[in-house]
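Quick check before the chapter quiz. The format below is the same one you will see on the exam, so make sure you can read both the input and the output lines.
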Amino acid sequence: MKLLSTLLILGTAISSAADKNPNRYESLKQEMRQSIARGNAWLTSQQKPGGHWDDEGLPAFSALALTALVRDPNLNRKEPFSASIESGFTWLLAQQKENGGIYNRGLSVYNTATATTALVAAGREAYEPAIVKARKHLIDNQWDIGQKKETDNKNDGGVGYGSKNDHTDMSNTYLAVEALALSKKVIEDGKHGAQPDLDWEAAVKFLSRCQNLEETNDQEFASSDPKNKGGFIYTPGESKAGEEKLPDGRTALRSYGSMTYAGLLSFIYAKLSPTDPRVTAVKEWLGKNYTLEENPGMGSAGVYYYYQTMSKALSAANIDTLPLEGGKEADWRSDLGVKLLSNQREDGSWVNNNGRWMESNPVLVTAYTVLALEQIYDSIPE
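Here is the expected output.
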């Protein structure tokens, strides 16, 4: 209780000092550095003898832990990686298949995208051939199954878990888009020869079909009702947050928090203008639904995924304070930082009491949270 009270006081002080003190985040930065170090120490203690974390059938778990470890602000990047990090990357690279994917038990896009992001974060030239092969695997999994034009099927332009027999979705699409955008620097100089790229126009079409915005979404389910306008759903025609009847008799698919932040981040990586109506609308939905008490629309389900995606999206959007309803603004770095610090357990880990989407697994949730704290830390204006 003493720690929580101290953190609440810290958060209040930072918020009240916003726009007045350019060094207002210094105390928070120190708290986050210590918390990140404790979280990464716990993650290191959970590494298996073979070099992986948790379930070796899901390399994404190891990739998330490795990304957290190499992005640690306490890490001296001029020194060699620790034995733990070295063995982790050795194991991860050994999981790459001939088709470029980095996976074991299916879910090839989720695992490959997360692994690619980890390899990019390491910043090692020796990993570039693996990154190039993984990029091609992700690009190959973009859907185009229509017959009349490139995006006549509602799934076209998106990315699914690795099969073209079911559907695409916002989560896999955002992870693939992120991995491709972050790894673009590896192929830009041409030293790896001519390389394919995502069909970004088709990707934006798919993203737009997951957004509740009638003016840019050509699907019948799209709704611009005040509650859902601008927010995102899971895949065209399905929302994990369910649906609701509108006063005019129509049925709306509910927008929800984690996918809406994923949508904003994807629009940014797709280089949509900040004044594009889709970007404007998604920011407005996020301002209306800003909270750290839950994953809006989903309660506690997937809340740590939500926190991590929030930190990445608002950082990429260069938003210092998020406009809310009524003319107020949220200092999201302070709010989110203090919230995550207060949730850390004594052993340095984090876990969600709601186990949906594997968030009862402390390895997964601790990696999510450390990455969110690192993102906040890195995004603090100098």
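If your answer matched, good. The chain has two domains: 1-45+210-382, 51-199.
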